[in-house]
């Protein structure tokens, strides 16, 4: 195994590929927002980079999870990665809790993080207002675990939606703080935020982000929604009374649907405006729904096959965890040494 890992490493060094790390929480069913903001870009980037794609189950338990749902979704998220086009031969796909270095580095980095900066994270402020006094300490420390995820792999690029930008900035601050306190240890990662699709909005309240934790199922499209459900949800999507397909901040519902169509079909915004001129919204909405169905249906079919093949998924996450641990452990050892811990004797 070690020989194979060494060989892998040598090949990667020879290719001199930069490193990508990203992840999705198995805290709810994945949405079209997760797909367009993150996953679709991972698929595009995977050939140029040495990629680590993680199912971040440790992040998911910052809010209450039903154990059997968490188990099912963790495997389903992995299956979605593969079905969407991530090649497990090229990229390292793994489950976060299988690589203990994530929790260990998170603890160490917690000791270099300020409560004030964590309190200022907008996602924490939003979520803590929802949970009141029973908000978990895990939710406050969540971005530190995310920083550990990224920094363990000496990551160059992190492809995420815009809602993760602030967490990326904190990751960079923590890395710089540690590097300055000791000596260069961590690579400073850059975010990769797509120009369009970085924030897919709710279909019911288009001024809010489409979110898997919303209480209203009409507000989001799930990656696994059947075609007839997708069509229904899009036909019910909130637009406006103007009846013009135009890319404008005054028409947030229409703008969101245009972005979805543009990111799925590649048709330019100008071409979309022209195509539906003088036609109202009915045909436009139908076409948006078809574009989503065309993209998601083949993925859904593959996911259904993959989730019945537990042995295959197990072989992927076992190999992934070995590959990830090898790199993660090297970084962690370096960090422990710099802090002044006594190395474990062999
Ligand atoms: P999560 O699980 O909330 O979302 C996963 C990815 O989907 C993106 N996303 C969206 N993009 C566009 N429009 C939307 N409506 C939308 N909703 C979600 C997110 O930006 C994200 O890229 N903390 C992270 C998971 C994480 C992580 C990491 C990411 C943990 N460690 C290290 C990158 C690197 C999260 O909660 O994502």
Which features would summarize this protein structure in a list?
346 residues, globular, mainly alpha, Rossmann fold, protein biosynthesis, Tyrosyl-Transfer RNA Synthetase, 3-stranded parallel β-sheet, 2 domains, binds tryptophanyl-5'AMP
What does this protein structure show overall?
The protein has 346 residues and is mainly α. The chain folds into 2 domains: 2-195 and 310-339, Rossmann fold (3-Layer(aba) Sandwich), CATH 3.40.50.620; 217-303, Orthogonal Bundle (Tyrosyl-Transfer RNA Synthetase), CATH 1.10.240. Helix content is 56%, strand content 6%. The protein has helices at residues 2-15, 32-45, 57-60, 67-84, 101-110, 115-119, 122-131, 137-152, 165-181, 227-235, 252-265, 269-275, 282-308, 310-339, and strands at 19-24, 50-55, 92-95, 157-159, 190-192. The strands form 2 sheets. A 3-stranded parallel β-sheet has the order 1-2-3. It has a two-stranded parallel ribbon with strand order 4-5. Helix 5 (101-110) packs across helix 8, helix 8 (137-152) crosses helix 9 (165-181) and helix 10 runs antiparallel to helix 13 (282-308). Tryptophanyl-5'AMP (TYM) is lined by residues 21-25, 33-34, 36-38, 56, 59, 146, 149-150, 158, 160-161, 163-164, 198-200, 209-210.
């Amino acid at each position: 195994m070690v020989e194979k890992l060494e060989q892998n490493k040598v090949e990667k060094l020879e290719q001199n590929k930069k490193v990508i790390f990203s992840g999705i929480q198995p805290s709810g069913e994945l949405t079209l927002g997760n797909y367009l903001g993150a996953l679709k870009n991972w698929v595009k980037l995977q050939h140029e980079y040495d990629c680590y794609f993680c199912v971040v189950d440790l992040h998911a338990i910052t809010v209450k999870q039903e154990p059997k749902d968490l188990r099912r979704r963790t495997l389903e998220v992995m299956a979605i990665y593969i079905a969407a086009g991530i090649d497990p031969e090229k990229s390292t796909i793994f489950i976060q809790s299988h690589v203990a270095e994530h929790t260990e580095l998170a603890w160490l980095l917690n000791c270099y993080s300020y409560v004030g900066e964590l309190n200022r994270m907008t996602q924490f402020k939003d979520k803590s207002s929802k949970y009141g006094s029973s908000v978990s300490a895990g939710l406050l420390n969540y971005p530190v675990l995310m920083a550990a995820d990224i920094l363990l792999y000496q990551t160059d690029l992190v492809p995420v939606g815009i809602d993760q930008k602030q967490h990326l900035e904190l990751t960079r601050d923590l890395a710089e703080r540690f590097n300055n306190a000791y000596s260069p240890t961590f690579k400073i990662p850059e975010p990769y935020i797509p120009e369009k699709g970085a924030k897919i909005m709710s279909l019911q309240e288009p001024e809010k982000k489409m979110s898997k934790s919303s209480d209203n199922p009409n507000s989001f499209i799930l990656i696994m929604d059947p075609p007839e459900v997708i069509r229904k949800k899009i036909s019910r999507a909130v637009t406006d009374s103007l009846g013009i397909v135009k890319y404008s901040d005054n028409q947030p519902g229409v703008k969101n649907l245009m972005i979805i169509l543009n990111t799925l079909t590649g048709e330019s915004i100008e071409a979309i405006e022209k195509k539906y001129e003088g036609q109202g919204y009915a045909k436009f909405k139908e076409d948006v729904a078809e574009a989503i169905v065309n993209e998601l249906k083949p993925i859904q079919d593959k996911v259904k096959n993959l989730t019945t093949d537990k042995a295959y998924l197990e072989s992927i996450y076992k190999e992934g965890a070995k590959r990830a641990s090898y790199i993660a452990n090297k970084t962690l050892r370096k960090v422990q040494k710099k802090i002044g811990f006594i190395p474990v004797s062999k």
